[in-house]
Specification:
Elements (H helix, E strand, L loop, with lengths): L1 H21 L7 H4 L5 E5 L17 E5 L17 E5 L17 E3 L19 E3 L19 E3 L20 E3 L8 H5 L9 E3 L16 H8 L5 E2 L2 E2 L3 H65 L4 H7 L27 H55 L4 E5 L5 H12 L3 H4 L4 E14 H16 L15 E6 L8 H11 L4 H6 L6 E4 L2 H18 L13 E10 L3 E3 L16 E5 L2 H11 L16 E5 L5 E13 H5 L11 H11 L16 H8 L9 E3 L19 E3 L19 E3 L19 E3 L8 H11 L5 E3 L11 H8 L5 E2 L2 E2 L2 H12 L5 H7 E2 L13 H5 L23 E3 L19 E3 L19 E3 L19 E3 L10 H4 L7 E3 L19 E3 L22 E3 L4 H5 L3 H8 L5 E2 L2 E2 L2 H11 L2 E2 L1 H8 L9 E3 L7 E2 L12 E3 L19 E3 L20 H8 L32 E3 L21 E3 L19 E3 L21 E3 L19 E3 L8 H5 L9 E3 L11 H8 L5 E2 L2 E2 L2 H12 ...
Helix pairs in contact: 4-5, 5-7, 7-16, 18-19, 19-20, 25-26, 30-31
Length: 1507
């Protein structure tokens, strides 16, 4: 021993020498020099043990690299050590640092350390590197509150947990190269307030599995907004953080919408169940009503016998009283009428029989209620699963997706087929189960689990042991197996959700839960379900007292189908231990299950005496046990239910006998038992005589018992005079209130059942009332009615309120007991002391006071960085401890520190004591009895408030909350949205007002910042309400589900999508691109009353006389019903996309219609396409002069020229503008149907032939300028015998034929055509009344002779080419005509083309005559644009005709020609011609004066004026 110590001492000496040598120290002088050394280092070899450090008491830094050191030791003498490096030294643990209290930096990387330990005393530690070790769990760091840098890279860590929460100073954390796979783990890092650098996938390490998931960086940046660097990337810029914030906010909004949709679906299921329950209750309730009526009638008869007899009649066989429906405790009647004892016995027997029937029907009610509760529970369970699934998707940022299957999905069908194929009828025959019904299949997409499964599988296949088997055969070892949650643990949901999120537990975790050390799976449904079935049957046997109407106690189940790689598997026998060490080379083991044995167990458990001999179990029916959880990948979650033989026969059965015919017969038999009372006449009112008769008394003061059962009374004012009355029965009447039953000091019993009571308000001063029966009424408000009873019935002992439609029925009992402390029985149940005490305690806590504020408030400055969908108040309150203890002395300003307040479900009726919460930011008051928003005027910093499920009917009280951004008022009594309140909430981005009574969206337009609006299940019914939302340009989520509008409005969804193009989701469903396209196709450019209201800002359609909607992309008109627009006279729809008159034809009184710059093809939409033109017709349409197709080519197949067989339209229309519509065929327009038309404007089209005017007999003015007309056909003007003005300028007319029908024509404009021969102008002699003519710009106008010739030939002509014909000019023309030589001398003479000047022929201008000039752009402009009123003293020097050519580049629609022609001479005096006005847009309309019965355009009764 001594020898070995000497050797060790010599070895230590060598080690110290090596240490000195490496640091340049002299070993001989170490004793003297060592105390001055502050830093030592030794690399690679020569230092196997940490010895000799006692020579260096002032050592501050010590570095050891590449040694073979197992333990840290020898540092006891180095109390000043601040930095220690023990790197690549094979360390297996952390120890020996207990004296190094000054240690600030510790580097222990590249070792074999398995656990973080023994660092509790290193409270000054700032840097700790433990990377590249064997650590599996973060722990042992609780005391290191000064730690700033922690490196745990390249270990085997899977969970972070809350282990780093105490390290509040941590700034730099490296966790690269570990096995962290869940986003939830990263979320926990948000608790580190100063974290600035985080590494999870350094380039030198393998990335954590979580880093390979989508949205990894977004998730981290959202939860740790202070982060400056993530995985070698700088992320300090503001836009990076904002992008992450925006992405997460959108996801939260989306999943909030999905969760709301799931809850709404549950509400629909509840409503459906309620409707069915209501239907099922009709028969039992009717039977109970009938039996009760008969029972109370018999009891009324019995009340007339002596007390001793009657008292015995009201006690059941067990001595109890008032325990069943209809039994009433009588007391002390003052009658002594003798009866036949036999008759009394019959009455008693019948009463007993009636009560027995009532017991049966009451049980039936309970069964129906149980059925309803069971269905609701199942639906609620499904909804809760759905919500958990959605939250799981949100928290995983989409890396877990749970897809709901439907019958159209191939994988859904495959799952159903698989489960059905694994169901064996023989296994379940003993339970009377005929099959299974699959209700729901969820497909599990978990990226992390799939990556883990594939990595593990590839690793196995690549290993040497697996190399023997071909890779092609590995699929044979893949199985789809079933897993059922452990029924013994009673935590099915938690286990299922854990499996879906994190996969199956490890072998060690199963052992810790005292389960078998492997994952139990099976390929048989009966094998997998056996533990659950046995557990359910065992529970039922232990709880026999509970009566269940369901024939299958384990009816509903769920099963997880997993893809499993069973690998090399070995068989085991029953009873063999599942120890992996016994099967080192196996991935799994399996056990064949004996069918006989399994069936026998089921039979034994169900106490069945039958023996079942099923077929021998197939070798493939097995129970598997898989050791490695990474080889089990959950893929599907299936919800199913078992079906019995009875269910198959009656697929819609509820498990309750729906047609109890036999019971009805039995009821009838009981009702027909002797005695059968004769029906008494029903009393409608009372007087003293009737009262005395009913009570069989002599004076009113003697009446103590009064039975008014079974009448039709609604008022009994006379009852108040019965001061001695003690017992009153008014059941089966028509009472809606009990105002008349007041001030009755001796009344002890009141039976008011089977009435129509809606409130107890009015009940007064019943000081002795002990028993009150209010069953089967219409009471809804428990709190208000209980307050009345508390005040006016202080002695009440028994109260029955059953079978009333209470609001929040589940809280009615606790509400009543909390306020009526004298009650001993409530709803036929004795009140326990504990129950009463609890109710009183809850009632006492229903006011906001100091105690409730302390317990339910928090002082956090920020909302937690959490992906929870709870409100901030709900999220904060359970997360952090209360700010002050109730026993601690409070600071004076403690209320000012409160930022969050959660007072949900506290039965609060009034918002009080909140005036000092000046910094309150988040508040929740859900599920209370608040009727008014008040008391919040001091809470000016409030950002979120939730008031769901109260009784609020107005938004008043919120107008001062300018910071509010989230407002929730679901389940209240709002009827409107107050615009004045919403206008003062500029930051409101979220608003939910579902389940109210809102009938209009008016006011919502003021909430301009809204992003989300939930307003489902209200009373919104008109499409016009959608227009109130159009100003909300930020709105992306809208929910209108459950409003009448949804069902009422055809194509509702795309209608809303069209009007709100920014929407991303509507009614819980994302808006698809195809929906947007369909919306544009269907509603784009539709002019309807809603659009009119939107454009005009009001919906008073009957006040609209003039409507202008230019450039609104309108392509169809639907102004229905047309009666709304009965006063509309003028419509201007220029510059739109109309192809027909559309719905305009239904407007009854329209006179002027402007449709310029559209694409009008016809009045009515084309019903069928026109037959293709022949080649001849095509050629003629292009070249009229070709001579081809002269047989009216413009009239295609199915078109008619005359209107004899066509019904007239728009009988009031007088003025029609159709310029610039691209019209090429006038016949197709069907203009002849507008029989009252007086002015028609068709300039600027592509018309080549004048036709289709046969029905326009009233036409006075026709404008066809700027078209392609070459000639006039014989029938062009055949019906226009009253036409006064015709414009044909800027066409291609060469001949003036067929004008003879225009016998009343006054004005004709032919400028800029191709008239060459003056003989064509001679044809105008057929127009005897022509007063104005223009042929300027034609070749014929170049001749100097056309003007004198026209003056001569047209005797009535007053204006020619814009220049007035004077007397001198007419005289000169006559002289010239008398001397033909003047013409022959200059046969080719003409005036200059640029200027025409007739000197000496100045026009005669009366000084006081108003003159009218005309400017023509692009040729001869029609008369409707640009009239100038010239002054009477116009300079005569300007009275000459000037014709100039000038090009214009601007795009004025009117001035689009190539010539600018200015006529400065007088056109006409016009005093006796029609008056023409201009619209504000330049269009010309006829001005009608309503006081004149005749057309003002033609003052002489519509006839042309005399010349």
């Amino acid at each position: 021993m001594i020898q070995s110590e000497k050797q060790r001492h010599r070895g230590d000496e060598e080690v110290v020498k090596e240490l000195c040598l490496a640091n340049g120290l002299s070993y001989e002088n170490i004793a003297q020099e060592g105390s001055n050394v502050s830093s030592l280092e030794i690399f690679f070899s020569g230092f196997p043990r940490m010895v000799g450090l006692s020579f260096f008491p002032r050592l501050c830094k010590f570095s050891i690299l590449g040694q073979d050191i197992k333990h840290i030791e020898g540092l006891e003498c180095c109390p000043l050590l601040r930095e220690l490096w023990v790197v690549q030294c094979h360390l297996t643990g952390i120890s020996g640092l207990q004296n190094c209290l000054q240690l600030e930096k510790l580097y222990l990387y590249d070792n074999q350390i398995c656990e973080i330990e023994n660092l509790e005393l290193q409270i000054n530690l700032e840097v700790l590197w433990l990377n590249n070790n064997c650590i599996t769990q973060i722990k042992g760091l609780n005391t290191l509150q000064n730690l700033k840098e922690l490196n745990l890279a390249d270990n085997n860590i899977e969970k972070i947990g809350h282990s780093l929460d105490p390290n509040v100073s941590l700034q730099n954390l490296n966790l690269s190269g570990n096995k962290i796979s869940s986003f939830k783990e990263l979320t926990l890092l948000a608790h580190l307030p100063y974290l600035r650098e985080l590494a999870l996938k350094d380039p030198t390490s393998t990335p954590n599995p979580v880093c390979l998931l989508c949205n990894y960086a977004t998730h981290v940046l959202y939860h740790i907004p202070g982060l400056q660097r993530l995985d070698t990337y700088d992320v300090f810029s503001k836009h990076v953080k904002e992008a992450a914030e925006s992405t997460v906010m959108k996801k939260m909004m989306y999943y909030n919408m999905r969760v709301r949709t799931a809850k709404r679906n549950l509400a629909e299921v509840r409503l459906s169940l309620m409707e069915r329950k209501k239907t099922m209750l009709q028969l039992p309730e009717e039977c109970i009503r009938t039996l009760n009526h008969a029972l109370k009638s018999l009891e009324g008869e019995l009340s007339k016998v002596p007390a001793s007899v009657k008292k015995s009649s009201c006690t059941l066989e067990d001595g109890s009283s008032h325990l069943v429906e209809g039994s009433i405790d009588r007391s002390d009647p003052t009658t002594d009428i003798n009866r036949d004892p036999a008759m009394e016995h019959k009455i008693l027997s019948k009463i007993q029989a009636l009560r027995e029937r009532l017991v049966l029907w009451t049980r039936r009610l309970d069964e129906i209620e149980a059925w309803y509760e069971r269905g609701l529970k199942q639906a609620t369970n499904m909804m809760e699963y759905t919500v958990q699934f959605l939250l799981m998707e949100l928290e995983s940022v989409g890396n877990i997706r749970l897809e709901e299957g439907c019958s159209t999905d191939p994988w859904f069908t495959s799952c159903c087929d698989l489960l059905h194929s694994r169901f064996s009828h023989s296994d379940f025959k003993v339970h009377n189960i005929a099959g299974i019904k699959i209700n729901r299949v969820i497909r599990i997409h978990n990226s992390a689990l799939r990556l883990r499964f594939e990595d593990k599988l590839h690793t196995l296949l690549a290993s040497e042991e697996s190399a023997i088997s071909s890779h092609r055969n590995y699929r044979r070892r893949l199985e789809h197996l079933f897993y059922i949650a452990d029924p013994e643990k009673n935590c099915e949901r938690e286990e299922i959700l854990s499996i879906l999120e994190e996969g199956f537990k490890t072998t060690e975790q199963y052992k810790a839960l005292e389960r078998e050390g492997a994952i139990p799976l099976s390929n048989s449904l009966s094998v997998a379900e056996q533990p659950r079935i046995e557990h359910a049957l065992h529970q039922a046997s232990q709880d026999d007292s509970k009566h269940s109407t369901d024939t299958i106690l384990f009816r509903h189940g769920q099963i997880i189908i997993s893809k499993v790689f069973v690998g090399h598997s070995m068989p085991i026998r029953e009873g063999d231990p599942l120890d992996r060490s016994r099967y080192p080379r196996a991935c799994s083991v399996y056990r064949n299950v004996d069918t006989k044995q399994r069936t026998a167990i089921s039979e034994e458990r169900s106490n069945s005496t039958k023996t079942h001999t099923g077929p021998e179990c197939s070798p493939r029916r097995r129970q598997w046990f898989v050791f490695d959880h990474e080889l089990v990948l959950p893929e599907y979650n299936i919800y199913f239910e078992y079906i019995t033989n009875g269910d198959q026969e009656q697929p819609h059965s509820t498990g309750i006998d729906d047609t109890p015919t036999n019971d009805i017969i039995l009821d009838r038999e009981v009702l027909n038992m002797e005695p059968v009372l004769k029906p008494q006449p029903k009393l409608l009112s009372l007087d003293d005589k009737i009262l005395l008769n009913v009570a069989r008394a002599n004076v009113l003061s003697q009446i103590t018992v009064l039975n008014l059962h079974g009448n039709s009374l609604s008022k009994i004012k006379e009852i108040s005079r019965l001061t001695a009355l003690r017992h009153l029965t008014i059941s089966f009447n028509e009472f809606t209130h009990l105002d008349d039953i007041s001030h009755m000091p001796n009344l002890e019993f009141l039976d008011a059942s089977y009435n129509r009571l809606v409130t107890l308000e009015g009940l007064r001063r019943l000081g002795q009332l002990k028993q009150l029966d209010l069953r089967w009424n219409k009471l809804t408000k428990a709190r208000e009615d209980t307050s009345v009873l508390r005040k006016h019935t202080p002695a009440l002992l028994k109260l029955d309120t059953r079978y009333n439609p209470w609001i929040r029925s589940k809280t009615v009992r606790i509400t009543i007991l909390g306020r009526l402390t004298t009650l001993t029985h409530l709803d036929d149940m004795m009140v326990a002391e504990e129950e009463a005490a609890y109710a009183v305690q809850m009632a006492a806590g229903s006011k906001i006071n100091q105690a409730s504020l302390l317990v339910q408030s928090r002082t956090n400055s920020d909302r937690p960085r959490s992906l929870s969908l709870l409100s901030t108040a709900q999220l904060l309150c359970p997360l952090s401890p209360a700010p002050q203890g109730l026993t601690r002395e409070l600071e004076l300003d403690w209320t000012a520190k409160i930022t969050a307040l959660n007072l949900d479900s506290q039965r609060i009726s009034k918002l009080i004591n909140l005036n000092k919460l000046v910094n309150l930011r988040w508040a929740s008051f859900n599920d209370n009895d608040i009727s008014k928003v008040e008391g919040l005027d001091s809470c000016l910093k409030l950002e979120e408030i939730s008031l769901n499920n109260n009784s609020i009917n107005s938004l008043n009280g919120l107008s001062k909350l300018h910071c509010l951004n989230k407002l929730s008022l679901d389940g209240n009594q709002l009827s409107s949205l107050d615009a004045s309140v919403l206008d003062r909430l500029p930051n409101l981005s979220f608003m939910s007002v579902e389940n109210n009574c809102i009938s209009s969206l008016h006011g919502i337009q003021r909430a301009r910042s809204l992003l989300e609006l939930y307003i489902g299940n209200n009373q919104i019914s008109t499409s016009r309400d959608i227009y109130y939302l159009k100003g909300l340009t930020n709105l992306i989520i809208l929910d209108l589900y459950g409003n009448p509008l949804v069902e009422k409005l055809e194509n509702y969804r795309i209608y809303v999508v069209f009007h709100l193009p920014s929407l991303k989701a509507l009614d819980g469903i994302a808006v698809e691109v195809t929906e947007c396209e369909s919306a544009k196709d269907m509603f784009g450019g539709r002019l309807n009353p809603d659009m009119v209201a939107e454009k005009l800002g009001h919906s008073n359609y009957t006040d609209i006389t003039y409507l202008t909607l230019q450039s609104c992309s309108i392509r169809m008109v639907d102004l229905s019903p047309a009666d709304l627009f009965c006063t509309l006279r003028s419509v201007n729809l220029d510059h739109n996309n109309l192809t027909s008159f559309s719905g305009l034809i239904y407007l009854p009184n329209i006179k002027a219609l402007c449709l310029n710059y559209n694409h009008i093809e016809s009045i009515l939409p084309r019903q069928k396409t026109q037959a293709p033109l022949t080649n001849r017709q095509i050629l003629h349409s292009k070249v009229h002069s070709s001579g081809y197709g002269q047989q009216s080519p413009s009239k295609g197949k199915g078109e008619t020229g005359a209107t004899g067989s066509v019904e007239p339209l728009m009988g009031s229309l007088e003025v029609l503008h159709l310029s610039h519509n691209g019209i090429s065929n006038m016949a197709n327009l069907q203009l002849s149907r507008l029989t009252n038309l007086k002015a028609l404007f068709l300039q600027g089209n592509e018309i080549s032939q004048v036709e289709g005017l046969e029905g326009l007999h009233q036409l006075r003015e026709l404008v066809l300028d700027r078209n392609r007309i070459k000639a006039l056909a014989e029938n062009s003007f055949i019906a226009q015998n009253v036409l006064l003005e015709l414009h044909l300028a800027e066409n291609r007319i060469r001949e003036l034929n067929h004008l003879d029908p225009l016998t009343e024509l006054r004005k004709l404009f032919l400028g800029m055509n191709k008239l060459q021969d003056i003989t064509e102008l001679d044809k105008l002699e057929v127009l005897p009344l022509l007063t104005e003519l223009s042929v300027v710009g034609n070749p014929v106008a170049k001749s100097s002779l056309h003007r004198p010739a026209m003056v001569l030939r047209l005797s009535q002509l007053q204006v020619l080419d814009g220049v007035m014909i004077t007397l001198e000019e007419r005289t000169r023309a006559e002289l010239l005509s008398a001397d033909p030589l003047a013409f022959s001398q200059h046969p080719g003479a003409s005036l200059p083309t640029t200027e025409i000047n007739l000197p000496g022929l100045l026009p005669h201008m009366p000084r006081n005559t108003p003159l009218r000039g005309m400017t023509i752009s692009g040729g001869l402009q029609n008369f409707m644009h640009g009239h100038d009123i010239l002054p009477s003293n116009v300079d005569e020097s300007q009275s000459h005709f000037t014709y100039k050519h000038k090009k214009h580049k601007h795009g004025n629609a009117v001035r689009n020609g190539q010539a600018d022609i200015t006529f400065r001479h007088i056109r006409r005096t016009g005093s006796n011609l029609p008056t023409t006005g201009l619209l504000h847009d330049g269009n010309r309309v006829i001005i009608n004066y309503p006081t004149q019965e005749q057309d003002s355009r033609f003052p002489n009764g519509g006839k042309p004026p005399p010349l």
